[in-house]
Amino acid sequence: MAKQYETVIGLEVHVELATKTKIFCGCSTAFGGAPNTHTCPVCTGMPGSLPVLNKQVVEYAVAVGLATNCTITQYCKFDRKNYFYPDNPQNYQISQLYLPICRNGHVEIETENGKKSVGIHEIHMEEDAGKLIHDEWEDCSLVDYNRSGVPLIEIVSEPDMRSAEEVIAYLEKLRMTIQYLGASDCKLNEGSMRADVNISVREVGAKEFGTRTEMKNLNSFRAIQHAIEGERERQIELLESGKEVIQETRRWDDAKEYSYAMRSKEDAQDYRYFPDPDLVPVFISDEWIAKIKENQPEFREKKMVRYKEEYDIPEYDIGIITDSKHMADIFEETVAICKQPKKVSNWLMGETLRLLKEKSMDPEDILFSPENLAKLIALVDSKAINSSVAKEVFEVMFAQNVDPEKYVEEKGLKTVNDEGALRKTVEEVIAANPQSVEDYRNGKEKAIGFLVGQTMKAMKGKADPGMVNQLLKELL
Amino acid sequence: MEDILSLSAVELSAAIKEGKTTAVEAMQAVLSKIEEVEKEINAYVTIDKEGALKKAEEVQKKIEAGELSGPLAGVPVAIKDNMCTEGVLTTCSSKILNNFIPTFSAEAVINLEKAGVVMIGKTNMDEFAMGSTTETSAYGVTKNPRNTEHVPGGSSGGSAAAVAANECFFALGSDTGGSIRQPASYCGVVGLKPTYGTVSRYGLIAYGSSLDQIGPITKNVADCATVLEVITSYDKKDSTSIDRKDTDFTSALVDDVKGMRIGIPRDYFGEGLDEEVKNAVLAAAKEFEKKGAIVEEFDLSLVSYAIPTYYTIAAAEASSNLERFDGIKYGYRAADAEGLHNMYKKTRSEGFGPEVKRRIMLGSFVLSSGYYDAYYLKALRVKAMIRKAFDEAFEKYDIILGPVAPTTAPKLGQSLSDPIKMYLGDIYTISANLAGIPGISLPCGKDANGLPIGMQMLANSFEEKKLIQAAYTYEKGTV
Amino acid sequence: MSNIISDETIEYVGILAKLELSDEEKEQAKKDMGSMLDYIDQLNELDTTGIEPMSHVFPVQNVFREDIVTNGDESEKTLKNAPGEKDNMFMVPRTFD
């Protein structure tokens, strides 16, 4: 009988924090600047420059640590990780090895196989590297330090996961928690959340772990899943053929769907960590921790329970809405204005999700304000616009957050409630469609639908279909 | 005004304000002195003649307009070449920075500028401040103005020589293991290393970050206190900067040591100390006693362990601090390199001199996997013990008095061949850096060859005023 | 000399420090490093059990910046000293193949 293998997976997740400035200097962290326009002597490693820690980075790191049940290291320090690479301007990265800010945490995840706890070994603060661009023309690389010094936290899990599903559930859980905290937008595809996956295999029942490899460059859940499956197969094949797995770092090529070892004799992997003498220790007092705890938001689990109690909306909807803190905020704020949870939920579950999918956007990117959604609902409620006009308006609101009241006014989209004008149009439609009139009179109830449609068309949609129906029946 | 160069910095500024001379005249006098002696001394790497004269004119106008009234307004200064100076070449006396023009100035330099001090240029030093003779510079050796067959000391040898040769009115140096105090002693001038964190390190190109401090090298104690007062500042750009309240150092220029407790560590007067140096320092102790100080001998433990502790820590920090010199962002880049790693290696191997490479290699080794605990952490533990030994000493004494260096300035070319012997020369100065305490070096005589002898006084952290008061009192009694 | 530095060690440290030494320099480096380490080994005479390693001499802690953007576009200054530049970026030998 073939041997049964178990995959053992641990994750190192890098999350870019949502601070306005870099971790050690006053440069902006905004995306999209021209190369090197968000740089200064500190984040480009100019001789004589010195780092000063951004307080917000500590607050975010503690907040994430508390939300993931970690113990906060109240006296923590920064260390230098020394290695040469052009994206690393000092040729050392300021990170934490000896006294990371958070330790010994865990999060609960849920997969088809049930609930499970994944341990968090530690969370540490560090600085991001710059960006390297390959220039084919000159056969060289180009360095842009705009990202250099952007604050990161690295969340190191215990090797507690056993499948790609668990890994994805864990990542989703981290993403959700961190987004709820507002500490990061956690976008895998944009690199604000990055996962390095440590994988080993062992025979089912074995006590010792196998030799692990570290997989880098995973930019989507799909890539993570494929890389885990591919690496599991590769390692099993090695073991089956009597070879050894080598502890190494491998890079995933998503296009080719395979990984290769990142090895170089110039790469000694000996980082010579030591406490950074340019930075002083961070002491996080009980009071400080309490203050951060106090400011923690209501997390998803609690929110879901409360929604169930407070709002009469389906459990499925609650799940979707609370999946994104931003969406949940919009829901709650809109309901607070219009007091109609069902209708707000419908707009979010229907048109909002449809447009997000169509434009491949995240719920975090929703632009429209609760005020405007509430106004739109009010416009429909008062029959000022009908539902198909409402959808049109919503689309514009979704794209540009326009004020629906003003927009309807400006574009003249209000339903025509002037019975005289409507009666005239209905009469014209009846005159123009003798066959349908005949059919209706002969008992074909459905024919009236066609006549309603024709009237709506003639009114350019700005009529109340109920009223049209009523008038038609009256005139026929 | 005649004999303008014989004035101290404070006297010069006063003369300018009284209209007896001008900042421009002072600068011209310094520049012509440089013209005369620099070929022999080589105190400077860069002389910014045009910039200096232009700046002197501007400052003169401001003084006349009453906009600048500080005690150093109009005074020409020399800056050690490891402090960044905006728009002016800054090399650390290394080939690897042979074309580096900083885009900002060190905080200490800015503080001087604000006070109306005018920079003449940048002084020679041991490459990246690694050395005690100023012979490891990529831009030639500096000679001791007191006797040009001898070294000026180091690493701030250019700064000390420039002061001694009247090629400036005062200078800034930096001190990681004695680099201000020892050259000041060899050149017969006054040098002070402040308490760690007193002068901002922002813009000082780091050697050993936990040990480096900028300080004054001056003609006399009054200048020293005045310069220290001007360059001291709490700088939010330097996380290790300390917000001190007691920075009116000139208030300590008082001729009185009555009741001051001065300890003389026996360990500083043992084997290896030159007899003439010993006698001169002990004679100085007698002077203090005469003036009413209580002088006694005591045992300061751990003295010999300071050197290995220092070289482990300084080399480790240096190996990391100097990683940024890689030929990518600034400075020298080797031509014709094949690929990235070869470019790094060629650039750094061609750009750094032997002493710098030696310390980078040592530092990389002591931090490497498997050795970190045994070497680096061990050194940090001994550092804690050394600090404690000083704490205990300062419970009993206001000041610790001893020699600056075991000998007077050695002859050129005699020191570099045996690194350990060279490192041993730092034995009296090094522990002040490990403990973060202030130390002053001031002349206390000459040896048979006419070379200056220096004495060193150490005080507890933040007690520069005690040093200044004692030094001032001694100076008054001998001049 | 009790610390004998091997060729491999010098080679390895050279890789870490990105220094390429000539054969002559290597021999010198072996000697220098060996004697420095012998010298440093004196520290083993001291019992440091229970003593906390001291990285900072003063117990200063919690030095922070507020999260406020203070720097504008300084790209010109950033690139001013670059040995190689293209399109407002630093030009380096190709980093991957």
Q: What can you see in these coordinates?
A:
The complex is a heterotrimer of chains A (476), B (479) and C (97). In chain A, 40% of the residues lie in helices and 20% in strands. Chain A is α+β, with helices and mostly antiparallel strands. In chain A, strands 3-7-8-11-1-12-13-14-15 form a nine-stranded mixed β-sheet. In chain A, strands 6-5-16 form a three-stranded antiparallel β-sheet, with no helix packed on it. Chain B is of the alpha/beta class and 479 residues long. Chain B has one domain (1-479): Amidase signature (AS) domain (Amidase signature (AS) enzymes, Alpha-Beta Complex), CATH 3.90.1300. Chain B has helices at residues 9-17, 23-41, 49-64, 107-114, 157-164, 181-187, 221-231, 275-290, 306-321, 339-351, 354-367, 372-396, 419-424, 430-435, 464-478; strands at 44-47, 76-80, 118-123, 170-175, 190-193, 213-218, 261-265, 294-298, 399-403, 439-446, 452-459. In chain B, strands 1-3-2-4-6-5-10-11-9-7-8 form an eleven-stranded mixed β-sheet, sandwiched between helices. In chain C, 35% of the residues lie in helices and 9% in strands. Chain C has a two-stranded antiparallel sheet. In chain C, a hairpin with a 2-residue loop joins β2 (85-86) and β3 (89-93). The interface between B and C is large, with 69 and 51 residues. β2 of chain A pairs parallel with β1 of chain C.
